[in-house]
Amino acid sequence: MTSRTGSAPRIDLHAHSTASDGTLTPVELVRAGAEAGLAALAITDHDTTAGWAPAVRALPPGLLLIRGAELSCRWDGAEPAIPLHLLAYLFDPEHPELVAELARVRAAREERGERIVALLRADGIDVSWPEILAAAAGGTVGRPHIAQALIRAGLVADTRAAFGPDWLGERYRLPKEDIDVFRAVKLVRAAGGVPVFAHPRATRRGRVVPDELIAELAAAGLAGLEADHEDHSPAERAHVRALAAELGLLVTGSSDFHGTHKTVQLGAFGTSVEAYERIVDAGVTEVASA
Ligand code: AMP
Ligand code: ZN
Ligand code: FE
Ligand code: FE
């Protein structure tokens, strides 16, 4: 890979579109990636590959697209189970078991969203599930969609506030029916994909898993760890890098762009060409280019 400017190519391997809880359509996302000067961008919507086809069709020349997803997982080694996110790159989107598992998780997300709204309504908070579902427009439903309803109702100022302890961060937080993380790693590998643990040390989001689990996941097929992420402190980034080196895992850095649902911009964090090439070499799906 070479850069048009001669400087190191900018590679962003984690971004969301309206296929889940981002605010740019897949078409707008790839255009924004090119405008941001990225050499490569991954589309990684929560539990879906629905954004892949429109993103590929609209791909601007000069931008490489990594097709991916961010799988909602859980680790049952703690009580209650710890939720975690697994990025999966370049897998076969028609692998039957993986397709079935993603469909199950999306259905469970809808059911959980509806229950969160019922809890809010029971406390006299006027938000409407049909309205929230309509706003998600067929994309994977998540708490950011409920957060938007709270903002529209004038109950919170922004998404960050909606994820505070009085709202979706704690009081009105319900668990999802996530995929067991070992099963997810094996499924992604079986589908020819490359599994990378997203923001593994993001203590500001809640509980994180122990390093011993990450070592077990590496033995089970995990390929990499996302180190540079806005939810990691500098110390957390350094810890993740050291752990990756110890376990022989590749390291990524990414924006986790969500459009206006978050403040972070595309390309705010990046991945090295070396790590990018390790992912591309290990994946079964070709990297898309215009
Ligand atoms: P869910 O997948 O429904 O559990 O919602 C989790 C999503 O909410 C994450 O993928 C982020 O996009 C978003 N999120 C989580 N915590 C925050 C936060 N503190 N501020 C803004 N967005 C958040
Ligand atoms: Zn999200
Ligand atoms: Fe995530
Ligand atoms: Fe994400």
Separation of the first and last Cα atoms: 15 Å
Domain count: the total is 1
Specify Rg, calculated over alpha carbons.
Answer: 18 Å
- The count of β-strands is 8
Mind telling me the CATH superfamily name? Metal-dependent hydrolases
The residue-averaged pLDDT reads 96
Name of the CATH class: Alpha Beta
Q: Summarize the helix and strand pattern as letters.
A: EHEHEEHHHHEHEHEHEH
Poorly predicted runs are: none
CATH fold-level name: TIM Barrel
Query: What's the tally of helices?
Result: 10
State the helical fraction: 25-40%
Structural classification: alpha/beta
Please indicate the percent range of residues in DSSP E strands (runs of 2 or more): 15-25%
For the sheet with most strands, the description reads:
8 strands, mixed
Rough outline: globular
* Small molecules in complex: adenosine monophosphate, zinc ion, fe (iii) ion
Q: Please name the CATH architecture.
A: Alpha-Beta Barrel
